[in-house]
Structure formats: C-alpha cells, structure tokens
Amino acid sequence: MPEKYEMFTHKNLNFGFVVLCHNHDTSLVKLTVRTIHRHYGDEVPIICVADDTANTQDMKDLKEICPSYKGKASWSSLINTGMKRAKAEWNFIVVAGCTVKNQLDKRFAFFLGSEKDVMFPIAEGHVNFVDSTLNGLFINKKFYKEVGDMATENPLEVCKLMWAADALEKGCTFKAILGAQMI
User: Based on C-alpha coordinates, what's the Rg of the chain?
Assistant: First the structure.
C-alpha cells in the first residue's frame, strides 16, 4: 500500500539529489553541489551520474565531489542509474551546471499526496511531464522502481511518454509546480 501524505501541510521528507552529468565536466557538478550544500547543508544525500564516455580519471574526479556512478549515453539511462543508486526516499533530478533554489523540498512537499506523485517545475511554459525540464523532477525511489526504468533507445520525450504511460497505470499523479524552476 503506498504511503499517503496530507496535502497542503508541511512535511519533513527524506530527500536527496541526483545530479546528471552528461559531459562529465567536474566544474558543472561542483557548481550544482555547492548550491545544494549552501541551501540544504552537507547532510543531504547527493549522487552524480555521468555518461558512458567518462573515463577512469573523470570518474575519480567526480567521486571527489560526491558519490558518482556511470550510466550509458542517454539522459534516460542517467536517470535510471541515478534512481537505482539514490540514497534518499525522495529525489530531485538536476542537471549539472544548474543552481538549485532553496526550500524546494518544502515547496514540493506542500502538494504531496502520496508516494505515487511525480512532480516537476513549470519551466518555459511547459506544464506537462513529457515536455517538462529534467531540472527539478521530484520522484519517489520506491515508486520509480515499481514503474520500472525509462526506455533508453528513443528521444528523451518519447522515453518520458512511455514511462508516464506505465506510471499512470500504477496510479501516478503528475503535478506541475509553479515557482520551483532551476536556473
């Protein structure tokens, strides 16, 4: 039975961050991790997922910043790897190089009704999951596992569409959150 939450109340969530690093640029990962630490402290779990072009030295450099893992070439494979390796129950997906706003956990938690809620920021006018940005995607690890991995062989929007269809069959509610956009 999925965990239920009382909506429109503040909640203390077990949350963390999955930083997607498609080009294994350590300076971009450092920027993002610094903003996370500045706003959320050093105790919030953060992992990084690099693409499969990262070599041994790249991975060593990334691991000096935070625990780091290697996915495959596609964005969806980085998400899949990140959600499998994530340390927290709830996880924000962010792209390396973005600056993370403060109190995102509080903004998202306020609208949280169950672990089957998948939330994302309204950015560039996109209010649906398929067209939304990856920056700020907020997913429960257990629910992601229940739905299964995103496909990796199609364009990202198609992979998200197929995953969304599976998630809806499992009872997912997609929620677009205003004012939670990453920079």
Answer: 15
- 31 sits in which H/E element: helix 26-40
User: Alpha-carbon distance 173 to 164, whole Å?
Assistant: 10
The average pLDDT across 118-143 equals: 92
Compute the 3-state secondary structure of the chain and give helix, strand, coil in percent, each to the nearest 5. 35, 20, 45
pTM: 0.94
Contacts of 166 (CB under 8 A, 6+ apart): 147, 148
* Cα–Cα distance for residue pair 20/163, rounded to 1 Å: 18
Half-sphere exposure of 95 (CA within 13 A, CB side): 11
**What values do phi and psi take at 142, rounded to 5?**
-65, -40
> Edge to edge, what strands does the sheet with 46-50 contain?
68-70, 46-50, 15-21, 90-95, 137-140, 117-121, 173-177
Q: Kindly state the DSSP code that residue 10 receives in the 8-state scheme.
A: -
Q: For residue 138, is pLDDT > 60? A: yes
